[in-house]
Specification:
Helix content is 19%, strand content 32%. The protein is of the alpha+beta class. The strands form two sheets. The chain has a five-stranded mixed sheet. A three-stranded antiparallel sheet has the order 1-3-6.
């Protein structure tokens, strides 16, 4: 089964929407781009808003901006005014930008992200798919079709006390 190129940007957009929405559900800090759908054009500037929602004074916070989700392009400390800090970034090509924010005290829960994309219809894989790509997925889908649509779990011994 060939993946339709037109569907790739839609999947990316859906991923970003879920990713950003998941971060809105976090407790104290919210990261949001100025366009609610997170979709921009090349050369657009993204005006990020980082808002502290705890009711107390905003803590010391640090941000990292990543291109393509991996490459650090900027980082710094946030300065809050009335519990809001801003970061501006600009797209120079079809791409994604990820803004990561963490705050004091540093731990696994004091961390949020926001994501945006520019020209998603112009983002393509960096390399062509392997020669066996379609055959591989056809086989996997055929294997999946053999699994009942409503599987039932059965109790089995795991060999570990208290674990079934």
């Amino acid at each position: 089964m060939k993946m339709n190129r037109a569907r790739r940007p839609l999947r990316l957009i859906l991923f970003l929407a879920v990713f950003v929405a998941a971060n809105f559900c976090r407790a104290q800090m919210v990261v949001a781009p100025d366009k609610t759908n997170g979709i921009y054009q090349v050369t657009d500037t993204v005006h990020w808003m980082v808002e502290w929602k705890d009711g107390s004074n905003a803590p010391a916070a640090h941000y990292v901006l990543k291109s393509g989700g991996l490459t650090k392009v900027e980082q710094g400390d946030l300065t809050f005014s009335n519990d809001i800090a801003t970061v501006d970034s600009k797209f120079d090509k079809p791409n994604t930008l990820l803004l990561e924010v963490d705050w004091q005290p540093k731990n696994n829960s004091n961390h949020v992200w926001g994501g945006t994309v520019a020209a998603p219809d112009k983002i393509f894989p960096a390399a062509p798919p392997p020669d066996d790509f379609d055959a591989f997925w056809k086989t996997k889908l055929e294997e999946l079709d053999k699994i009942p649509a409503n599987p039932q779990l059965e109790k089995e011994a795991s060999g570990k006390p208290g674990v079934d």
